[in-house]
Design brief:
The protein has about 80 residues and is α+β, with helices and mostly antiparallel strands. The protein has one domain: 2-Layer Sandwich (Alpha-Beta Plaits). The protein is built from 2 helices and 4 strands. Strands 2-3-1-4 form a 4-stranded antiparallel sheet. The longest helix is centred in the first third of the chain and has 13 residues, at about 15-25. The radius of gyration is 12 Å and the shape is globular. About 10% of the residues are buried.
């Protein structure tokens, strides 16, 4: 287990599937996905990784999404 910083990001339905898939391919843990009027993903990042994540997210969404801190959590590491 490791302590991660949690961030939420809102996306349009049109972007959500591609962005979620790309984040998972990059090893980003998605701990929750809420499909309402917009899609809200909650991601778990290593402490201090937000700046790099935000830059990647801006490239993936052409700057149309941003992150909001929502707390911390202990996340299980996947078995290797």
């Amino acid at each position: 287990r490791s302590r991660k910083e949690l961030y939420s990001l809102r996306l349009t339905h049109a972007r959500a599937g591609r962005v979620e898939g790309e984040l998972r391919n990059r090893g980003i843990s998605i701990v929750d996905a809420d499909y309402g009027a917009q899609v809200t993903l909650t991601v778990a990042l290593n402490p201090g990784a937000r700046e790099d994540f935000d830059a990647s997210l801006a490239a993936l969404t052409q700057g149309e999404s941003n992150t909001k801190p929502v707390g911390h959590a202990w996340i299980e590491r996947p078995e290797r």
